[in-house]
Design a protein that fits this description.
Elements lengths: L6 E8 L2 E6 L25 E11 L8 E7 L5 E11 L14 E10 L3 E9 L17 E4 L6 E10 L5 E11 L4 E10 L1
Length: 193
């Protein structure tokens, strides 16, 4: 006899809530007792651990023990904390004023909050700080440190040659993607007097 011959239904649970049921129409044949031909789409609404369980019910109403699997769902993109922006010279002194066409080594930094950030997928478009340098269009950070106050926050630092053509407001676009592909992008403004 086939392995599924005594099974009437298989029930699927999300946590303790029954989400789907599969009867003889999807239990398969040939002794493999594989569920085929049916699917139940479910979209998890938040971020966190998800536990999915299944149990078989026989033709007499007796249930097997549950078999469960747990996995993590992350729908939250990294948070680029615009208020943390800083632009300093190589010695860490804030840059408030510039002299157009006079290059200077600068560091731009911003904090990003995410427990699962993909550091290799964090970039900044710093091209308004030096329009003659195409490498600043999508630049990887030069330095990454973890905040001493919160381990979910990392400080990303880009070192580059600051050489804008004029004073005024310059825009930096920071992009960050986490390990699950959730992406954030922020435009940050820096004004020089």
């Amino acid at each position: 006899t086939a392995k599924c011959s005594g099974v009437k239904t298989v029930e699927f649970y999300l946590g303790t809530e029954k989400k789907a049921e599969c009867g003889s129409d999807c239990l398969g044949t040939g002794g493999g007792c594989k569920i085929t031909g049916k699917s139940k789409e479910y979209t998890h609404s938040g971020t966190g651990e998800v536990k999915i369980c299944a149990k078989a019910i026989d033709k007499f109403g007796k249930a097997s023990s549950e078999k469960c699997t747990t996995f993590f769902v992350d729908k939250e993109a990294p948070v680029i904390i615009k208020e943390s922006k800083k632009i300093t010279d190589a010695d860490g002194n804030p840059i408030l004023n510039i002299i157009p066409e006079k290059p200077l080594t600068a560091k731009f930094s911003v904090s990003i909050q995410s427990l699962d950030i993909d550091e290799s997928k964090v970039t900044a478009d710093l091209s308004e700080f030096n329009p003659d340098n195409p490498a600043l269009k999508s630049k990887a950070p030069s330095e990454i440190t973890v905040s001493s106050q919160d381990n979910s926050i990392k400080i990303f630092v880009w070192e580059f040659e600051l050489n804008p053509k004029s004073e005024g407001t310059k825009k930096v676009t920071v992009s960050a993607t986490d390990m699950f592909g959730n992406k954030a992008e922020e435009i940050i403004e820096i004004t020089f007097g």
